[in-house]
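Question (not urgent): is this output format expected?
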Amino acid sequence: MKLSAFFRIGLIALIFCLPASVLAQDDEDYLESLLKEEVENVNLVYKPVIGFGYGYINFYGEVKNKKQNPIMGTPAYKINVATFVDNKRYLKANFFLMLGQMGGNKTSSDSLMNLNFKTDITTFGINLHYDFKPFIKTGSLITPFVSLGIENVQFNSKSDLYYGDKIPYIYRSDGTIRSAANEIIKRDNIYESDLRDLNLYGLGSYNQSTFAVPVDVGLDFAVSNRVTMRLGYSLHYTFTDDIDNVSSKATQGIKGNKLNDMFTYSYLTFHFDLFSSPKTITIQKLFAEVDWDYSMYGDSDNDLIFDYWDNCPNTPPGVEVDTTGCPYDDDKDGVPNYQDKELHSKVNAIVDNDGIEINAEKLAEELSGRQAISRSEVESFLMMQRARTRYNIGKSSIPIPQKYKQLDKDMDGYISFDELLDAIDGFFDDSPVLKSPQDIYELNDFFFAQ
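Got this back:
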């Protein structure tokens, strides 16, 4: 018998000593989980998905900035509402609204060609959104998309023509800006002049509302089942050439090319699917579906304790058992009640196979009669002692008495089971430590007191 066996028995004792209420609650939760199952929702109801975002606009026309950058420009906000339009859910319709500003600045050595404008911009429209289904599986973390649509664009272009209180800018060929008094000044970037009202180039009162065709490309990133982050870039081709007030239709002054104005919008938006049905649902089952392992849940001795948990698998029929499947042993002497002819032995008493206490006088009488005691009988006795204390095994900090310290061969401050057996062997070999049966009793009491 090795020391590790005591640790295993101690672990079993610890498990059985857990509060019954905790174990009962675990069993109840486990049984409850068997009656629930999470399954795919095959009858999904899709509701509109709401999106909000922010981005930058860059204008492309006669009056445009010298440097264009997708992550720089004039700011704009976007609101989007999306819904599926086909039964297979391959296509979405996006209804969107964009609010922001757009502008351009053109510098030239020609004093007449130094132009600037800025406008508030409002666009609203619809586009058809395709994210490459079924070629890309539903639920992918990253999904590319393209879209094409139609929108209305409204603008009100203004220009910064004056410094402060109506001091006109005079652009010189050396690149400086001067006042009428020939003082060098800088633009104040206040766009005070309505370009359509000024009618500088004979364009008249043109319409400040036009249609445009937006084309979007980008990537959707799945943040969660109900949240998507979209990184996109769109080109808006308008049906007007008047946004920057320079057009091929001009009858005087500066005349533009025949290309219509365009602008781009690079954006980051978040889309929230707040109202659609969940993709998985939990169903409540009337019966639990369990894959039984009958070798695990059998009960060969019919004591109502499954064999897997039965510590005494061969209990005779009709014998009452505890929760471990072992017959009751009220006096904890290692002999179960149904075999015990002395049901109330003293605590830590040495008993025979019938559970009857063996007193010191009888043991001494047998020893003095030189009747040999076999090692198997001693081990049987110790095994009964171990069974008697199976619920209370564990080392303690009790110091070893001085006269037994020689028995602690590994000097670990603990008399192990093997060391106890060696000591008993030594008793029969005239050990200098154990000199009488009383010494065996005392060593036995100390061993179990540990």
